[in-house]
Each structure stands twice: as structure tokens, then as C-alpha cells.
Amino acid sequence: MTIEYIDAGQAIDHGALSAVPGVAPAVTENIDYERLLNARSESHNWLTYYGAYDGQRYSLLDQINAENVSQITPAWIFQAGQTGLIAGASTYAFETCPLIVDGVMYVTGWDGHFWALEAATGKELWRYKHAVPYDVSLCCGNVNRGCAVANGKVYFVTPNAQLLALDATNGQKVWQKTIGDVRAAESASLAPTVIKDLLITGSAGGEFGVRGHIDAWDLETGEQRWRTYTVPKPGEPGSETWPADGEAWQRGGANHWVSGTYDPETNLYYAGTGNPAPDFDGEVREGDNLYTDSVVALDVDSGEIKWHYQFTPHDLWDYDSTMEMTLFERDGKKLLGHFDKNGYFFVLDRTNGELQHVTPFVDRIDWGVITRDGKVTPRKYPDKEGEPVHFYPGPAGAKEWTHAAYSPKTELFYVPVADVGATATRRRREFKEGMPYWGAGVAVDIDDMAGSVSAFDSHGEEKWRWRIDYPMAASVLATAGDLVFAGTPTGEFVALDARTGEKLWEFQCGSGHHGSSSTYSVDGKQYVVVPVGWGGWLEGIIPGMLAAGHGSALIAFALPS
Fold first, then answer.
1. Which segments cross the bilayer (predicted)?
2. Would you say 169 and 25 are in contact if contact means Cβ atoms under 8 Å apart?
3. Which of 468, 505, 529, 538 is nearest to 120 (CA)?
4. What pLDDT is recorded for position 38?
5. Closest-CA residue to 194 (of 49, 328, 327)
6. Which residues contact 448 (CB under 8 A, 6 or more apart)?
7. pLDDT value at residue 456
8. What is the per-residue DSSP string for 184-252?
9. How confident is the model at residue 5 (pLDDT cuts 50, 70, 90)?
10. Torsion-angle region of 314 (φ positive above 0: left; ψ -120 to 50: alpha; else: beta)
């Protein structure tokens, strides 16, 4: 039987349903590769997902600093909540990272929403809404993490695996491409990355047994330039890490669902990959299962994998490695730092993938042991049908997808840490396309949990820790003002002293944080903006807060005039 996929159709022009001007200044027309290469030097802007290609989430702005941050107050609030039905309504979250270009802010939301705002006031300039089917299969929430800007356009993906280019002045669609098979439960949530004349994207949907891939698209036309699958087919390098018989590789996962980083000197895009499928039933996929739970370094021009490093071979705990690959230098060496869900901090030589050292960054780890030289020894995992196994960290990891920051000024990493365990009971399931393919029932601990923002040097030595009672679930931001900004699950947005961890300021935002803040300036005035909207895969992170208020606001803070 052939099942025809019917698209959701043309969305209503949301700009026509509200009193918004429908036009923004043409500030992105001269955003090109050269400007993106030097994004951090434009400290008044936030031009890429991480603020710069290196993934450091660090700003040179210091008007707001450790001496005066106690004086900042809300400058404006934008309410992003919408009426009407959405896909996966119970699981939406405001997980975006706003981009700012010369006074205009570009913000993505859940369910295909996009807004352009006046960055100094929060005034809405235009909006776009993509048509997303109500029944689209989503593993872990109706979410979107951000956009990209270049050549007069803004680019973003939608939950039903579409890539869109919009005119940055009015939100009108320029082109649209399908980047995944929504019928097989592929989806998309990452912020695209502009490199040269390319747009890099990745797929989501590993919990449904899809085969992950990373794609490059022509920036102007949207035509596909290359595709690299993150699970090799038989005969390709890495295929020996999958069963020789059967089709396990075809549904192997390894999705790239969080934006990667880029080094123009090596011309490599560093992409983190997700868990294998099924998540917890390893008997149906014997072997290390490359390139799951890995960083793959791709030549940007061809998509060829130049090297890889696998953080959790033969994963049985759902320890995706999609989180940021932070690029930094130490003693003249080009390095990459990665805080993995498995609870360990890895430092690699980013020119060739050679491991430098490994260090734990969370208190409780009992799933297994990784020595400083990288030897992995599993200890606790669900290997028997119907037999519960408890382990730390749980499947959301010692750090979820949300991002660490690195300050070249202090030479410290600042990490949102989650310390919570879970129980998995293996339940073998036959693979069916479009259906969840976990291989276990999982219950995350509802109590006995903790979280922190922890500071580490590049050798993995902890320098300070700011503690809370719940696992951290939002990205942190570091600035040249010797500040670290972080949002908590219970709604507090805080500023910490980057050198000591002392809390210097706090504001209750009214809903939990599960996104990424950014900072910018307009007419010489610095702002810090944070999306506030609790939700997403809460049963896997903090099930005890499933009933907490969602929220859907964007709040900007600044010093008094």
C-alpha cells in the first residue's frame, strides 16, 4: 500500500492578522562570509548561532560588567505566545538563540514561527509562520534553536524537515527545500550555519530509527551541494562497526541536531552526532556503531569526513554527542573542547582528532569509566529483557544540548551541569518506520537531583561551582565584563562573577529557561536578551517539573539610561 504524504498547505500570513509594520531595515544585505569570519569583532552584533564560528558563546562587550550588573533591569519584553493548535502542543519550548544585526533582532520559535524585532525596543517588525502538520512525529519537543543570516536573507528549519530562506526585510519566502523524510519521522531543529556560499544543516529523529545525515545547500538557490551520511553503509569506512547482516545501519541514528563549529584554517566543520537506534537495545546493533556519539570533522567544500572521534562507543544510555565542539588554543595548539552527556570533558587536537585528555565534570558517574587517555569501560547498562538498571547520568546527560561558554579572557569554560540519574528497562521492539524505536522503558529520577554552573580550566580542573537544586537546562553566556549569564529551570536569570562564581544579580522571569541568551548593543547601549519558555523533553530532564508553566517571552535587560 502506498501512503501519499499531504503537506499542511499554505500558512496564513500572520503579519496580516496583527498590527505589525511588515518591514525591517535591510541590514543583512552585506552579511557575507568575510563578516561572518570576523563576527566577534562586531561586538555590537550577534551574527551567528554561537556568536562566532568557534562556538565559544563569548562577547567582547563590557559595558555591563561585574561592577554594575546589579543595576540592570528589563528594557523590554516581547510576548511570543500564539493562539491555535500546534504539533506536539504539550512539548513546545522556547529554545532559540536570537541573532542581532545592526539594530534588528531575528528570532525563531516553535512550530515554524519567525519574528523580526527592533532590538532596542522589542517592537515587532514582521512575522512569518510556516505550515507544520499537527501529526508530525517529534521525539523531544516542538522546538527550534535559531537561524542564520546572509545576503539579505534569513534561514531556518521547521519541525517537518523543511529549510526556508526568507527575505530579511519583510519575511516573504524566497525558497523552500525538503531536507528530510517526515514520513520516516525525520525532523529538524538546529540553527543552520552559513560558511562561504553554503548553508549547513543536519537532521533529527534518531529515536525513530532514521539514518542521520549532514547537508550543504547553495546559499542563493537552495540547491543541494552535498550530503554526508553519519552512519556508513556496507563497504564504507566505519561499516565494520555495524552488524554485517541485516539492516541495522539503515536505521542507525547518529543525527546532527545541534549546530556545529568551524575553523577556516583547517576548512573543517566539526559536527556532533546523536545516539544510535534503538537507544538502549544494543544486541540488535553489535559493534561500536560509528559515527554515533561522535564528532566528525567534515571538509566544508566536499562533505568528506577527514577524521572522527567517538565519545561513547556502542552507546546503551542515550548519550548523544551533538552538543557544541568549542574551538580554542592552548600553548600554540589548535584544540577542541567538548562536554559530553556521558559526564566527561574531552579535549582533542582539532587538526587530526587526536585525544589530549579526558576528565569527569559531574559528581555522579556510574554507567562506566573513561580513563584520562580515553579507554572506555562500561559497567551498568540495560542488557537483559525486562530487568531495570539504574545509572548516572540519566539519558538527558550530565549536560543536555544546552551550551557551555568559554572566555579567552579568563581561560575558563562555564558549563551548565545536570546531576540526575535514571532507570532503564530493556523492552525489545520490532522496527516500524515512523514509530518510536527506543528499545527500553525509561524513568528519570524525580528527586535526588542537583545542578550547577561549573567553571573548568582547559585541563579539566574545576575552579568554582554555583549550585542549584535542579539540573541546569539552559545555555550560559560569557562576556568581557567578567560575567557569566545563566537561566535556571525555576525561572531565575542570573549573572555570576566569571572569576569566582559569586552571584551578582538575579531576575525572576516567570518561567523556566531552556534556550540560549545573547548580547548586543544599539547606539552604544548594551543589552542581554534571553528566551524564556519552559518545555521540551522534560520527562527526560526534570520530570518533577512537567507541570511548570510554559511561558513564551523574550526579555532584554540593560543598565538604566
1. none
2. yes
3. 529
4. 97
5. 49
6. 420, 421
7. 98
8. GT-B--SPPEEETTEEEEE-B-GGGTPBPEEEEEETTT--EEEEEESSPPTTSTTGGGS-SSSSGGGG-
9. low
10. left
pLDDT band at 8 (very low <50, low <70, confident <90, very high): low
Residue 10 pLDDT = 64
d(CA 195, CA 200): 7
Mean pLDDT, residues 217-240:
97
pLDDT above 50: residue 502: yes
412-419/388-391 β-pairing: unpaired
pLDDT of residue 538: 82
Could you tell me the three cell numbers for 363?
Answer: 559528581
Q: Are 496 and 509 in contact (CB under 8 A)?
A: no
Q: Is beta strand 492-497 parallel, antiparallel or unpaired with respect to 124-129? A: unpaired
Collapsing DSSP to helix, strand or coil, 263 comes out as: strand
Residue 481 CB: number of other CB atoms within 10 A?
Answer: 23
**pTM over 0.90, yes/no:** yes
Question: Residue 543: phi, psi to the nearest 5?
Answer: -60, -25
Q: Could you give the count of Cα atoms lying within 13 Å of 442 in the half-sphere of its Cβ?
A: 29
Grade residue 133 by pLDDT with cuts at 50, 70 and 90. Answer: confident
Is the dihedral angle over the CA atoms 202, 145, 318, 375 positive or is it negative? positive
Give the Cα separation of 238 and 261 in Å (integer). 23
SS3 assignment, position 333: strand
Report how far apart, in Å, the C-alpha atoms of 221 and of each of 31, 165, 408 are. 17, 9, 37
- Known active-site residue 318: yes
pLDDT of residue 1: 43
Name the pLDDT band for 86 (thresholds 50, 70, 90): confident
Rounded alpha-carbon distances, angstroms, from residue 417 to 365, 380, 463 = 13, 21, 14
- Cα–Cα distance, 555 to 358 (Å, whole number): 37
The rounded radius of gyration (Å) of the Cα atoms in the chain is 22
Give the position of cell 504539533. 87
State the DSSP H helix or E strand holding residue 473, giving kind and residue range, or none if neither.
none
Question: pLDDT value at position 6?
Answer: 56
Distances in whole angstroms, Cα of residue 34 to Cα of each of 29, 377, 521: 13, 45, 21
Cα distance between residue 273 and residue 206, in whole Å: 10
d(CA 92, CA 477): 23
Catalytic residue, chosen from 281, 293, 318, 419, is 318
In 10 A of CB 220, how many CB atoms? Answer: 14
Residue 491 has pLDDT above 80, yes or no: yes
- The tens digit of pLDDT for each residue in 195-208 reads 999 999 999 999 99
Distance of alpha carbon 412 from alpha carbon 455, whole angstroms: 6
Q: What is the DSSP string of 83-132?
A: -S--TTGGG-------EEETTEEEEE-GGGEEEEEETTT--EEEEEE---
Rounded-to-integer distance, Cα 440 and Cα 437, Å: 9
